[in-house]
Every structure is written in structure tokens, then in C-alpha cells.
Inverse folding.
């Protein structure tokens, strides 16, 4: 730990301000306008691309390198269950149990 | 007319509250693991809890924490967190036309965006149901706050969190949102494309950048008509 108590507070407030600014930027600059057809076509596709990128990076990457581990197996099992329409909470519990189980071996 | 739209708004808000609950349950455990890690990184209980309360952006919080855990300073932690948050720029741009009111009011409404609420409020035609978005965020905000308090207070008893497999929570959370978005062939293809772009950029760019860069795959909508 290299940060002092005060520095941690500074970090927290900077994080909060930065997050609020980023979340405000799009609505402030582009709000209150008519929706163009090309704009909505791009918007519709934004969700699957962003979410897919989030899944891939959270399960297959660690920092700047590709990585596979026990959690990859846990998530794969949960993916199958999600596909079979199991509830999210159940899938998460199974993913955690499988991951923890493999690490305990 | 006004009464009818008020009723619609209330109904959408209630629907949002209900659909936010499973994500809120999962969010509790995610935030608890943040609380545990924050304490280990030297945050006080109050500091860990306040972070969840006023930052309320999981991936950015974890990114900042991982930087300072390995000895990085405030600028490096902020940079890592901003990059993780950069996707909210894309989400905010997409959401903007669906928000009424002046700039200040729109900025305030934009604060309610979290990954799951944004994805669920997406009507599939390029517009967003803002009341559904607000409703979905409310239970998640509550459990996000409670989770970090819980993790920060009781985290010491858990010991090594890696052993517990909590890192499997995040991907499953995003995966459930992704599956709901795969409506047609086009969305499936851009999902594959976005995933590949992100994966390809992992070794050559700081965490967060691959995700933002992947969103450019959605520009295929400019040339190809999606249903």
C-alpha cells in the first residue's frame, strides 16, 4: 500500500467525479435531438458488441495478457445454463462453486 | 394524455425494479468482493463503502484498486478506471436522444446508467425506455452499497478471495445481458466481431481500451440494415 489515508480519499473523489463526467457527456452533448435512422441502427448493435467485449475480456484476459483458468470453466458451465434459461442467480452460484471447487483441488 | 403517459412511466419503473432484482443480488456479491479487496488494499471501512456509494461503477472501482494494489499512484489508477468507464461514453451517446429536458437534467438522468439497466432499457429499435432504466438501477444501487459495507466489515474473515471463485461472477453477469441481446443474425455477428476485436487488442492496449474499441464494430449498422 503506497497511498496515505488522505490520498485514498482524493482517489475516491476523483473517481466519482470522473465517472459522473463520463456518464453525463453523451446525454449533454447529443440529447434533445431527432433520432436519425442510421444512428439508431448503430445504437441497436452497440449493446451486443459492448457486452460481448465485456464477457470476453472478463473471462479470457488478465491485465494485458490472455489467460484461462478455473473461472473460465465455471463461466462456461454457467453459459450453458443461461442458454437453457436457468435463472441468473442460480447460474452465478454454480459458476462460483465450480471455480472455487477447481481451485480447491 | 398526460395521465396515460404518467401511468406508462410508473408501470415501466415498476417493471424495471422487478427486472433489476436478480442483477442486484449478483451485484451484492460483486460489491462485497470489492469491499474485501479494498480493505486489503488499505482502504478503511468507511472509505470502501463510500467508494461504492459515490462511484457506483464496478469495473472502474476494480480497475483502480488493482492499480494501487501493485503500487501504482493516483494518476495511473484514475487512467485505468477512466478506460474501463469509457464504454459509458458510447452508452451515453446511444441513450442521449431518449432523454428529455435541458442539459443539466439530461446529465443527471445519465448518472442512472449501469451496464444492465442500459441493456434492459434498450427497446431494440435504437430508443431507450428511461423509466425502465431508472427502475432497474434502483435495487442495484442499494445492494451495491450494502454489499461493499458487508465486504469491508466482514472481509477479514473470508481470507483469500481468489480461492472463493468470486471472479466468475462478472463474466456470468455480462453473459446473461449479452444472451438477451442476441435477437437476430446481425446482432450475433457483431457480438462475435466485438469479442474478437476486444480479444485481439488485449495484449497491445491497456485494460478497458479493447472494450471501447470493440464498440466500433457497431458502425456496421451504417452500411447494413438490421432488423
Amino acid at each position: 500500500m503506497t497511498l496515505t489515508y488522505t490520498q485514498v480519499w482524493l482517489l475516491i473523489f476523483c473517481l466519482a467525479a470522473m465517472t459522473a463526467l463520463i456518464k453525463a457527456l453523451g446525454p449533454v452533448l447529443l440529447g434533445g435531438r431527432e433520432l436519425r435512422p442510421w444512428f439508431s441502427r448503430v445504437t441497436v448493435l452497440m449493446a451486443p458488441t459492448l457486452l460481448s467485449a465485456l464477457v470476453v475480456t472478463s473471462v479470457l484476459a488478465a491485465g494485458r495478457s490472455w489467460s484461462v483458468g478455473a473461472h473460465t470453466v465455471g463461466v462456461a458451465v454457467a453459459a450453458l445454463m443461461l442458454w437453457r434459461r436457468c435463472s441468473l442467480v442460480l447460474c452465478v452460484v454454480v459458476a462460483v462453486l465450480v471455480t472455487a471447487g477447481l481451485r480447491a483441488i | 394524455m398526460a395521465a396515460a403517459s404518467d401511468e406508462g412511466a410508473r408501470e415501466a419503473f415498476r417493471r424495471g425494479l422487478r427486472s433489476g432484482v436478480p442483477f442486484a443480488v449478483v451485484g451484492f456479491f460483486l460489491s462485497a468482493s470489492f469491499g474485501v479487496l479494498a480493505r486489503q488494499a488499505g482502504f478503511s471501512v468507511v472509505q470502501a463503502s463510500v467508494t461504492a456509494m459515490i462511484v457506483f461503477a464496478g469495473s472502474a472501482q476494480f480497475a483502480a484498486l488493482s492499480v494501487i494494489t501493485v503500487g501504482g499512484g493516483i494518476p495511473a489508477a484514475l487512467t485505468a478506471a477512466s478506460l474501463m468507464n469509457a464504454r459509458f461514453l458510447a452508452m451515453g451517446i446511444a441513450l442521449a436522444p431518449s432523454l428529455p429536458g435541458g442539459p443539466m437534467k439530461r446529465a443527471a438522468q445519465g448518472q442512472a446508467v449501469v451496464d444492465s439497466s442500459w441493456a434492459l432499457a434498450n427497446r431494440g429499435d435504437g430508443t431507450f425506455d428511461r423509466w425502465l432504466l431508472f427502475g432497474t438501477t434502483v435495487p442495484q444501487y442499494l445492494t451495491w452499497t450494502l454489499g461493499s459495507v458487508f465486504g469491508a466489515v466482514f472481509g477479514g474473515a473470508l481470507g483469500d478471495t481468489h480461492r472463493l471463485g468470486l471472479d466468475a461472477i462478472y463474466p456470468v453477469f455480462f453473459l446473461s445481458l449479452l444472451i438477451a441481446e442476441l435477437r437476430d443474425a446481425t446482432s450475433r455477428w457483431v457480438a462475435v466481431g466485438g469479442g474478437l476485436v476486444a480479444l485481439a487488442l488485449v495484449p497491445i492496449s491497456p485494460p478497458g481500451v479493447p472494450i471501447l474499441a470493440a464498440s466500433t464494430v457497431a458502425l456496421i449498422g451504417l452500411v447494413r440494415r438490421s432488423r
